[in-house]
Amino acid sequence: MPSPTTTTTATSSSTTTTTTASALPSWVLEEREAAGIRHRRRVLEQRAQRIHGLPRATSIAVDVEGLSQQVKDRQRALEKDQREEEDFMRLAATQDRAAVLLQHREKKVLYFP
């Protein structure tokens, strides 16, 4: 630990005395440390208040035209799928009737030559 140092400088009209921190009494050091701690706490509280204290207004941009276009596209795709399924069901029903008629004809040919 460095020894306490006192420097005296003579100038034309005054004398300056510089004292290092280690030469100060312990109660002065404790007061300085306490003041530093209070200052840091105050600064941290102010920072926390700036960050967390005020509610921030956030805005979200919405592309209404783009969203409505997506909805229309989705609706068109669903309608197209529904039409395709209906067409498939009609075709399946037609093919079922044709198969039934074919089976009836085959039975008539086999049993009634």
TrEMBL record:
Ranges of compositional bias, category Low complexity: 1-23
Stretches for region Disordered: 1-24
Record keywords: Cell projection, Cilium, Coiled coil, Cytoplasm, Cytoskeleton, Flagellum
One Pfam assignment: RIB43A
Family matches, as InterPro entries: RIB43A
Main location: cytoplasm
Location(s) in or outside the cell: Cytoplasm, Cytoskeleton, Flagellum axoneme
Family: Belongs to the RIB43A family.
Assembly, per entry: Microtubule inner protein component of sperm flagellar doublet microtubules.
The protein's name in its UniProt record: Uncharacterized protein
Lineage: Eukaryota, Metazoa, Ecdysozoa, Arthropoda, Crustacea
